Amino acid sequence: MILHDVNITGDCLQPINSTCLKIYSSMAAYVSLYVFAAAVVIFTVCGNLLVIISVYHFKQLHTPTNILIISLAISDCLVGLFVMPVHSMILIESCSLFGSTFCSLYNMINFQLTFVSVYNISFIAVDRYFALSNPFLYSKKVSLLLAFIITTHVWIVSLFYNCALLYFNGNFRNKCADKCVPSVDEVWSTIDLVVVFILPCATIIVLYLKVFFIARRHAVLIRAAFKDRKHLDVQNNGGSMRLERKAAKVIGILVSVFLICLIPYYICMLLFDVLAQSYDRVVNTMLTLFFLNSTMNPIIYALFYPWFQKSMKLILTLRICRTDSSLINVLSNDS
After folding, report:
1. How far apart are CA 106 and CA 151, in angstroms?
2. Looking at the predicted structure, is the pLDDT value of residue 5 above 80?
3. Which of 13-22, 87-96, 312-321 has the highest mean pLDDT?
4. Coil, helix or strand for 200?
5. What is d(CA 31, CA 289) in angstroms, rounded to the nearest whole number?
6. Which of 92, 131, 260, 263 has its CA 20 to 30 A from that of 292?
7. What is the pTM of this model?
8. CB 91 within 8 A of CB 36
């Protein structure tokens, strides 16, 4: 996803402080900021690595949906490795410590990884809707190969799109040595708004709402079937209710966190003229929230599922090093 300070004119913005000095109340506060940033980076990388290892190692998890999840985890893990550390330094220091060549590379990696992350989430929404609305057709048509082809195309399309955006806006000839600020004109800003925000957000909202209502309808049908029986199975009926609540909870968290992380940043982009002098500070704050989406994804897409909890225990206790550990059953009845 495109993450940048929009520079409509294409000119370099003035640095916050030409002396590159930012005054903190104490050295402890300065160090604490770096410690906190490092902790977030480590959590992001390790959380997504657990997802990657789980899906890759256990053969039972080799499903089309999990191919999309592992692609999401890879992009989010790389965001933690390459994007978050640089962004943290830009926030903590008063000016960029990097040259124009490094900034161009940073912006390219930034755009590529976050774009991929957003579209992985979108295709997960498509996958879940298709699986729930038409399970028989889904089982016949959707395969591991198809999921792999889709994820590969997401990475390739993202690469071409972001290269075009940076090239046609002159960002490979970055003149700004003081700040990693890419230039984007009004036309490309509009295109980017539609491609990277409106389209995926609309897809996710519409499909997850449909998934929510389908799940509720299924739960109602299950309860009705139990009521028609002479001997009501209370335990099973309670299980259907739990499934309904779980579906509502997970879908609500997925949509809410995604939108909370994305919408504030794009609102700031649209308010470029209104924010004026405070634009840099506000956008950097929103970017921090934006990047935290990569931190939350392994929790939202994996930690809520029993298979991840079990596989995480196996990984952390090094039981995956045993012979034939890839054949261990990590799926529970309610996953």
Report:
1. 23
2. no
3. 312-321
4. helix
5. 21
6. 131
7. 0.83
8. no
Sign of CA dihedral 86, 88, 89, 91: positive
Instruction: Work out the angle at residue 277's Cα, subtended by the Cα atoms of residues 40 and 168, and round it to the nearest 5 degrees.
Output: 75
Per residue in 125-137, pLDDT (tens digit) is 888 888 888 888 9
How far is 198 from 187, CA to CA, in rounded Å?
15
Task: Name the one residue in this structure whose structure tokens are 């060549």.
Answer: 101
Give the HSE-up count for residue 102: Cα atoms under 13 Å, Cβ half-sphere: 11
- Residue 171 CA to residue 163 CA, distance in Å, equals 10
| Environment class of 180 (CB within 10 Å of its CB; exposed 0-12, middle 13-18, buried 19+) | buried
Tokens of 68: 């999309």
**Alpha-carbon torsion angle 246, 249, 127, 162, nearest 10:** -150
Give the three-state DSSP class for 17.
coil
pLDDT at position 10 is: 44
Read off the DSSP letter of residue 169: T
CA atoms within 13 A on the CB side of 156: 6
Domain ranges of the chain: 27-327
What is the identity of the amino acid at 234?
V
Q: What pLDDT is attached to residue 156? A: 96
The number of helices, as runs of H, and strands, as runs of E, in the chain is 12, 0
Q: How many other CB atoms are there within 10 angstroms of residue 190's CB atom?
A: 11
Q: Output helix, strand, coil percentages for the chain, rounded to the nearest 5.
A: 80, 0, 20
**Long-range pairs for 267-270: beta carbons < 8 A, 24 or more residues apart:** 269/6, 269/189, 269/193
pLDDT digits (tens, 9 = 90+) for 147-201: 999 999 999 999 999 999 888 887 776 555 556 777 777 788 888 889 988 898 8
- Spacing of C-alpha 298 from chain mean position: 9
Look at the domain 27-327 and name its fold. Answer: Rhopdopsin 7-helix transmembrane proteins (1.20.1070)
Residue found under tokens 């994804």: 297
- How many whole angstroms separate alpha carbon 97 and alpha carbon 188? 28
